[in-house]
Design brief:
The chain is α/β, with parallel strands linked by helices and about 290 residues long. The protein is built from 10 helices and 11 strands. It has helices at about 10-30, 45-60, 75-85, 105-110, 125-130, 140-150, 170-180, 195-200, 245-250, 265-285, and strands at about 5, 35-40, 65-70, 95, 160-165, 185-190, 205, 225-230, 230-235, 240, 255. Strand 9 (about 230-235) and strand 10 (about 240) form a beta hairpin. Helix 1 (about 10-30) packs parallel to helix 10 (about 265-285).
Length: about 290
């Protein structure tokens, strides 16, 4: 048996089509959803991501503003620009592209963004709301992963989900979202002693470690749902996931590819959060 491939491109395209309708509806009520991106320095990957976000905004009807700053910009100036955007009624989402130069504190930057405009879902207030099951902007990649699984009609309730990786951006929050969906969650990481024993118990296996081909079929339970978050570029210039796709596909029931899996969902959920923020502004205006 070969696993069914969950195409992030297809799921993302479907969500973006729905978002177009929502944007049209919000615009008819006098608000254009607006996303402001601050890009510091000249990291090629960051510039590529931001171009992708601009393109996605244009296609969906979202107003997009990108401010490109040199790596010499002071922390003070960057924080002031964020404050200006916090107070700008035409902007519903603020995104500061990471990583930042060493002289700028990522923590300060994230905490300066208004929780009501934190469409990345990284602000401690939104993390706290997510942890306690309140209405919050959810981190984009973890939220996208949940949407991908649900797109296949897979119920998460009662399932054992094993997460390999504990980053603040993917590993930790995706575990919380799975918990919110009534899954039983186990984390594995670099200090886990008996990883294979644990991962082979997972009905759902989510791998986010940033090491090409880290997980082979011996780590996978028969008929598991395997979500590969890894994006690793090798010397041949190609992208590889954290999972050995071909052999994992022989054992899993569902699997995500790299590229074309989790990646397209991340920008899509950023658009989703921006539109959600604009809708909340409308609700606030009418109440």
């Amino acid at each position: 048996m070969t696993a069914k491939v969950i195409s992030g491109k297809e799921v993302a395209a479907q969500i973006r089509e729905e978002l177009k309708g929502e944007v049209k509806n919000v615009k008819e009520q006098g608000i254009t959803p607006g996303l402001a991106v601050l890009l510091v320095g000249d990291d090629p990957a960051s510039h590529s991501y931001v171009r992708g976000k601009e393109k996605a905004c244009n296609e969906t009807g979202i107003f997009s503003s990108v401010t490109r700053l040199t790596s010499e910009v002071s922390e003070r100036e960057l924080l002031q620009r964020i404050e200006n955007l916090n107070n700008d009624p035409t902007i519903h989402g603020i995104l500061v592209q990471l990583p930042l130069p060493d002289h700028i504190s990522e923590t300060k930057v994230i905490e300066t963004i208004s929780p009501e405009k934190d469409v990345d879902g990284f602000h401690p207030v939104n993390i706290g709301r997510m942890m306690t099951g309140q209405k919050a902007f959810l981190p984009c990649t973890p939220h996208g992963i949940i949407k991908m699984i649900q797109s296949q009609g897979i119920s998460l309730s009662g399932k054992h989900a094993v997460i390999v990786g504990r980053s603040n951006i993917v590993g930790k929050p995706v575990g919380q979202l799975l918990l919110n969906e009534n899954a039983t969650v186990t984390y594995c990481h670099s200090k886990t002693a008996n990883m294979q024993e644990i991962t082979t118990q997972g009905d759902i296996l989510i791998v986010a470690v940033g090491r090409a081909g880290f997980i082979g079929k011996d780590y996978i339970k028969e008929d598991a749902v395997v979500i590969d978050v890894g994006v690793n570029r090798k010397e041949d210039g190609k992208l590889y996931g954290d999972v050995l796709f071909e052999e994992a596909a022989e054992k899993a029931s569902y699997i995500t590819p790299v590229p074309g899996g989790v990646g397209p969902m991340t920008i899509t959920m950023l658009l989703y959060n921006t539109v959600e923020s604009a809708k909340r502004t409308l609700e606030g205006a009418s109440s």
